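Fresh eyes needed here. Have a critical look at this protein's tokenised backbone.
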Amino acid sequence: MERPIGVTILTFVAVVLAFLNAIVMLRFLGFLPFLGVIEGRVFSLWYALLYGLLAYIWVWLAQMLWQVDQQAWMFLAIITIFNLCIDFVLLVTGGSWYDVNLSVLANTLILIYIMLPGVREAFRMG
């Protein structure tokens, strides 16, 4: 199947989000204390596991998008909404906007973009 340029851009954004989630995972493991507003080490195994899983899912989703898999559109919508919910929980539980700003902006733009009719047709079955 031919890959439209929009799907290629979505694949690139999915790789960027995988990278951002991996960085947040490392921050919650205490490996990158110099990034962010909080000085010193912050350790949370739950958040580290959660963001590590999200990083893995984004890599898997990027691979699905690259192959223009028919289920990738629905999976992308679900994971984008899930990632926005996780970012919101992080903000409510004491995180800062600096920690999640790129993730929130990228996920919001992805969600808006994948709802466009041309993108939905690119993943249409048949």
Summary: Residues 5-122 form one domain. The mean pLDDT is 84.
